[in-house]
Give the backbone structure.
Amino acid sequence: MADPADETFMWAALAEARRGVGHASPNPAVGAVLVQGGRITATGYHRASGLPHAEIECLAMAPGRSLRSATLYVTLEPCSTTGRTPPCTKAIVRAGVGRVVIGAMDPNPRHRGRGIRELMAARIEVTTDVLSAECSRLNEAFNKWIVTGQPFVIAKCGLSLDGRLTRSPNESRWLTGPVARRHARQLRAQVDAILIGAETLRQDNPRLTPRGALHAKQPWRVVLSRSGKLPREAHLFTDLFAGRTLVYRGKTLARVLAELGRREITSVLIEGGGDVLGQAFDARLVDKAQFYLAPLLTGGPVLAVGGKGAFSTAGGAHLVNVRYEKVGRDLAIAGYPRWSEETVE
């Protein structure tokens, strides 16, 4: 069983790590705290790719005395190789830290455990797997991308009780209330790209910005089109972020996601419409679902998830680790799809 004090300080390191969500990609969000005499004396988090890692930022704030009795808490195994920055393990050894407590192991099979071995070889006491599930979940997108090269895919939509994306023609396009829409926009601030279909662009002319999220980075905006015939006056092509709009013509969703992964895009939020969501679920490309259920029935013309659908109930997408949250008048449902071994046709 983990030491309660270790968990307490790891929670503090996780709070630091969350400050980097939406900014650190394609690196993971990592936080660190330094503890001496039972109190936190320095903190740090990874602010952006190319900037110092959390451990380095934390050690730079350390008080000017021996760290032999200090414990460094870090949410992810310290890096042991040179990338955009030097290895953190060497800096920790040089600083003379006496103990290191690690949340999650490095997900990269080529590096996993190497940092721990280097620290132990330097006679530093190492404790691992403290709040490991929480630390891993924080970087679920990075964890998939670094191992597979594929981005983590979140399917998001607001739908009515009868499974529609839209109201009847000539009515307001919003189904969910303002609280749910603000909640959903927070997702945009946490991902690298937002993906829609051409019809959503034509009908809704969305901006796909994380407005309302303080200091948020603008994600890439990705449009799938069969014909390539898109309204050039659309916001995505004319606003301040037009340079962060990508159009893919005549390519499958799977191929587009693979290309986005090669661009170091680690997470993609699919915002619709029903055709693109249907493609994603049919091909089993969705890693996480985030649906907002409005308490109304519309009889609108567009199904929330189109496509071929499952060939049986058993072969459908079953959500695990489901979370329900009331947001304003609506219900947010989040979970991770799992499929049976039924063959996709």
